Structure formats: structure tokens, C-alpha cells
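ugh ok so i messed up the first submission bc i forgot one of the chains. this is the corrected input, ALL of the components this time, i swear. 920 residues overall. if the numbers dont match what u have on ur side tell me asap before i send this to the collaborators (the ones from the other lab, u know who)
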Amino acid sequence: MLETSDIQGLVVRGYGSLSEARFLLLAVDHPERARAYLRRICDRVNTAKVSPETHALQVAFTAKGLEKLGVPESARSSFAREFIEGMDDNIRAESLGDRGRNDPSPLTWSEQAVHVLLMVYAKDVDTMKHLLDEELPIVKAAFTVVEKTTRTLDQNREHFGWRDGLSMPNLLGVPKERPRKKQQESWTDPLAPGEIVLGYPNEYKVQSESPTAELADDPAGHLEPTADGKHKDLGRNGTYLVYRELTQSVHALWDYLAKQSKEPGNTPVDRAIALGAKMVGRWPNGAPLVESPDRDDTERDDNTFKYAHDDGIGLACPVASHIRRANPRDALGAGRDHEDSVIMVRKHQMVRRGRPFGDPVSEKLKPEEILAAGDDKKQRGLHFICLVGNISRQFEFVQRNWIQSANFGGLYKDGDPLTATRRTGENANDEFTCPAKPVRRKYKGVPQFTTLVGGGYFFLPGIAALRFIAGHP
Amino acid sequence: MHKVHAGYTLLVRLRADRVDAAAALLADFEQHPDRLPFERSTTTHFATVTIVPAQKYGDEVLPATLLFATSFCGPAREHVSELVRLMRTELCHLFENCEGFEAADLEEFILANRHGDTFYSGMQYLSPEDVVRHQELRTEIETFIDHQQGLGGLPDNAVGVRHLIQSHIRTQPRFAWAQQSFTPAPGSWMALHWRTLILGAIVVPFLAVLVVSSIGWLVHPSAAIDTVAAGSWITTIFVAACALGLLRAIRQAEKEQTFVAGRQPDADVRALAATQNRPVINEMTIAGPVKEGWLRPIFLRMALWGVARLAEGIPRVYGPIVIPTVATARWIAADKGRRLIFISNYTNAAEGYVRDFIDTEAGAKNINLSFGFGRGYPKTRWIMKEGAITDPNAFGYVVTANQRRTAFWYGRYNDISIDNITINRKIREGLFGPKNESEAQTWLHLL
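and heres the new structure output, hopefully the right one now
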């Protein structure tokens, strides 16, 4: 069982019932005051043990933040290399496709300037206001604050109009809490907890690599000793949090779908929706194309489907579609057979905790409404957030080899139709191939529909580790 | 002429006073790749030229060595002749830093210093011209389909669409070659499998004699049959005893292993990662001494010989190994088996590539067999067990600990993956010839 009283709640729940959220990007101005503030909130940070009813508080740190807060160098250097280097490191950014429109240099924020991420969740606007009125004055005494406002949309949709968060991996060792909340059935067995939470066995049946501290650096004894007794386990019950603020060009997407669709349909709207569904791999209401290839079906939003036997070629759900490349399930095409594919894909899973920002184009986000609305030029998008035990093996691998790659699954010039950074010329990834009988339909010059605004790699510590970082007496 | 895809590995000891000069020359080649014009070679798919530094093996120093490794198709002699013809002057400049080199005998020098390797090809029987042509053919077909779809002029059945494509290609003189059948040239099979066949020629008759003489000894004993049967059994027992002895000795060495590689300096790993960040195909060179124990160099060479045969496939028993992300992989038991060198050209970035192989237990066992002898590799049990299976992190560490920055790399294909090369070949193979509706549909799904 996971030590839920030491794990931040975000690991096991997305706080879906708390519709309001503020992500506060904090830069340390006064380290001592900052530590004092962190000590103050140690007992208020919500753990995985109990589901909060009204509000929740979570906290994470960048590598720079740990340095700024005085965490010893020996401990900081024991974190994963990708966390230390950061998302906007030149080599990593190149690898992730954060070039061109996503070039890190003009990003509005990065982990270089952000030290702490404070995530505040509330059940409604009033509760959020009350919380911030209390919290912000104290926070501002120690930090420079940048506020990111988020709010869940109708039926947990994202701005393009699709229901989000339908294919989340389950974790072994998570205690069942509320009987009314049924765990979603999955295409695969629950993951070993170490895939997400440090200090537990992962899918390789070994402990994930985890940061440590010197014994002498923890005189207060906040941290448990490592298995060999030579260090203190700083990573235990923590996880890495990947944060990417992405704007979504909703008008550009639906304009493209309406004008370019060659998919079957009775009306122009039907044809636009059909192409959108092919690009996503699900219909807007969540029905997977593998199970419901011809029409949206509100009864079928499950996550149990696989590809290899039912749709190996991708006639229903194209190989290039977003959900198939973000999670190829049993059809990776590597290894000896489909079982090997499952084993391999399970090692590249992520727990996603994203939240939309900005006003929706329409309240219900129905395709007809979105199509009818013009371009209001308003900024909207997604705070993409995922939790992983290994940034390189999980988030970066998926982003580089499955989302960005033009050659995923034997394709030639197909990047992810929704979320890839477009490249043209050599190594172009601006096509979308839609398998069909007798021959495929191809969409060329697909525009880029999402743009990176900022982002970073964070460490979401366990509560004991938080006390250590805060320098609790 | 056959088109077997193989590795040409040249390993030559550098003169002690010329190591820096060789490094400077390679740096200049990297800056001015036209000085080694591999792109004009008709036989070269990939080339790696680098220096394997002096390394310690116990108390012994393994010398700094020049590694010149091409992946090529066709007869080796023709490949070497072509390279000499294309880049004689530069090769002379390069090899004059090596021991025993005489400029007048460049070709002889290259032929005489060829080193054995274990080579895996993900693109067997393809020449560079084939790969490029197949890509052009696919592009032409795709463009034609796009055009026809724009006109609304495609039939609604697969046979009809394929027929239309065939007609179009027939009108294109530059694709006249595509109408000819595409099968490995005569002699290809033998050129690839001759080592396995020699082994078979020894083992199969021996086993036949063993079985027949044993049956004869049971049914109709005679002095002659008894002698043959006894000889066969003594030989079998002797070979089995040697193998068991070797295995037990290796097992003992496994138990005594103390050193396992740890996390390498972040800056070093980052510098290496920067060299393997190309969008599609990357290259990796690993070189390091093997673990201590005098039997390991012997067993390493035996194991790599076996892996090589498995990688080629055993004729009429099972097909070659297929690894979708790997164009070439090559293991070299250098310095009489005391140093293991690995070179690969692959689709992926280095970090993901390395992890790919140990994601399944079967894959990790194979990695144990082929890499488990390297110093710092996590402890294996009976060669294929544990190792990367039980300590995947240490596997990653030992790879980065022994990875070398490749001084000069040439790869012909910048924007097509190994998967693409395989699919292109299937498109070409299936373009002409009879197919029913179902077969034609399967072929069209390649597009």
C-alpha cells in the first residue's frame, strides 16, 4: 500500500470536484521568509489519504527553487539529470520539439525564473477568493507571484471541445476511498506504483531512482533512511511534475476541420467532426473510434479498448491520431508480439492532471457552437500537467518519439495532429494520414494548433520531504 | 553481384605519438565532411570513424585505437576498392597515424586489418541506391494518389486502384527498374549464411554419425561400429564437459564481480546526448574493457559468434531477428576479446534507444548475453539472467560510462526511419505481379 499520509493528494486524484484552481508560480525573494512560509503550510498540504471537500493545497519545486531554498548541493545533485537541467535546456528543448513557435527563448516563463509551484484548488469562486485573500499577502512577503487561473469546463472538456482525462492509468496500492466514485476500468492492469511515486517498485520490479540527502543534513530526522542506511530518502513518496502551459487555437482547428475534411458525413458539420474525431481518436463526447467508428456514442467513453486485433491498420482510429500515439497500448509495433507492446507501453505511462485556462468559446463546447462562433482572439488553452517517476523515460520519451516524431508507427511525415510542433521541409511532420479503403486519405500542411507558452520540471515532494526542504526545526 | 549488408570494421592501433594528430584530423573531417565523400559511395549506408582511447584492463593498458567502421552492401573487396578510389588521399592521411601503415599499400592495409564483428542489419539485401529509389517510388505513388483523389478519379476497389498505380508507374521511364522483380541476387544467401553452413556441415554429419552408430551399437554391435560410437560419444562428452566447465568458471567470475557502474557526471552524459539528438536516425559508439577473468575474453568471442548467427537467422530453421528501430548494430570483441565495442545506427534518441532493449525480459536477456561482459555491467547470473533485468538503472549507467563521442559519422538517410525503409521495400516488392482484392488491399494499406 502507498503511504498515503505522506503523499500529496494530486498523485491519486485530480480534484475534479474542486472546479476552481490557481497555479501560483513563485520566485523566491527572501529565502528565510520563503522557508518559514513553507514550514507554515506543511500541515495544510493535502495528502492522498483523504479527499478534500472544499479546497486543497499542493506544492512543488524546481531545481532552481531547491537551490534558492538552501537544499544542500549533495541532495540537489542526486535528482534526475533531466530535472536538474530543466525543460528549457537547449538539448532537451530541441528533443521535445520546443523550437520554432515553441522556442523556449521567448517563453513567458520557465523553471529558470520559477522556484515554487503552489497549486490552490477550491470548490467555487467564493472559496477560492477567500483562500487567496488569506494566502496571497503572506506569500507575497516572501515571493514574487505570477498567478495562473484555471477552471474546469463543461463535462471536463478541453477547449477544442473533447472530453479530457478519459484514459488515466490506475496505480497499484491506492486504497479505495469513496464507494460512490468507481475506478475507471483500464485497458491494462494497474501500474506498479514506482512508475509514478518514488520509493516503490516500478514496472521493472525495482525501486525507481530517487534523490537522497546526506545523513548529516537531516538532523531533525524528517526523512527515512535509504535501504543501505547510508543516506536519507528525499524522494520517497514524491514524484516529478511536468508542467507545460499550452495555448489552443480553437478557431484555427475548427476552421481547418470545416474547410479541409474529406471524411464522410451528411453535413459540413458532420464532416468536420469526423475529421476531428480521426485526429483525436475519440468523438467529442469521448467514444473511442475503435469501438464506435461511425458515430459519437455518449454511452461509450471507456478505456478498455486495444488496437492490435480490432484495428491494427488504423481504419477506425488512425495510427497518427492523438490518443493512439500518446498511448499505443498493444500496437506499438516493437517487441515480439502484442503482449510485448503492452509491457513496453506500460513503461511510458503518465498520470495527467491538466486544467484548462481561459474562457471557452461556448458554454457547452458543442462543435456546432464552436464552428458558428468566430475568432474572438481570446487566449485560452491547457495547463498540461503530468506526474511521472522518470521524466526521461515517460514524459520526454512520449513527447519525442510518439508525439513529435514524423515517423511514429511507420509513418513518414505525420506528427501528432493536435499537439505536435510543426516542422516543414526536411523531417516535416505536418501531414495526417487517415487509413481508408481502398486507399488512405492524406491531409497535408496541417497547421500547428497548440503553442507552448512556458513550462518546467518540478518535484512534488512527500510531506516529510517537504518538511526537510522547508528546514523544519 | 550480391547485396549482403555487412559491417566492415577496421581496428588499427594508433602510433603513440600520433593520437592527438589523428584526433585533430577527425575533428577536421567532422567540420568538413566532404573530405570523406561517403555520399558518392554506391556501397556505403553508414560510417563511423573515431578513436577508441587507451583504456585499462586490469593492470594492462589497452592501446588507443582507430576505429573505421562502415556498413556496406556487396562484396567487401569492391567496397574497399571504392573507398580507396573515392578518398585515397584522406585515408592515407588518416592511416599514417597508425602502426604499420605504408601509403603505397592503402588497399592492402585496409584489407589486412579487417577485424571480425557481429553484425545485425535491419535492411538486409538493400543497396543505398535501392533505399533511395524505393523512397522515390513511394513518393511518386503517394503524389499520384493525392492527385487522383483531388480529381475524384480513383476506383472504389483495391485491385482497380493498384492497377491505376501500375499504369502510372509504367509511363514513367525513370521507374523502369520498378517493373523488374526484386529478389536478392544469386549468391546472396550463400554470402550471408556461409559460416552457419560450415558449422552445419560439421555438426549435422557428426550428429548423424552419433545417432546411427549408437543405434548400430544397440542393434548390431560390431568392432567398427563400437569404435565409431565410442569415439562419437567421447567427443560429445568432451565438448559438453568443456562447455560446462567454461560456464561454471563464468558463473564463479559472476559471483566474484564487485564493480558495478554508477551514475556518470551529468555534464558528460549531457554532452553525449547532444551528439545523438537528430530527428530520425542517430549513431552510438560504446567501447570499454570487459570484466576481469581470463575466461571472459574467450567466452565473449564465442557468445558474439553465436549472436551473429542468430542475427542472420538459421537457414530453414528460423528467420533473422527483426528490431524495428535498429538499422545496424555491431559488436566487436577487440584486443583479443578484452575490449567490447558496440556501434549502432538507430531510429530514436540515445536515452530512449538504450531503454528500449530492456523493456521486456526477453530483450533484457539478449542484452545480458551481448553486453553483460562489459566492465561495470550489473551482475548477471548464468550469463543471461539478472543483469539488466534486475538492475536496469545500472545498465543505463554502464552504457553512458562507456559511450564515446563519435568523431565522424556518416549516415545517408536523414528523414526516413528503418520502419520506412522496410515499408518502402514492401511497396516496391508488391507493386507488380498478380494480387486478388484482399492482397491488393493489404498492399494499398502500406501507403
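quick check: Chain A has two domains: 4-244+455-470, 250-348+359-380+410-453. that seems consistent at least. Chain A is about 25% helix and 15% strand.
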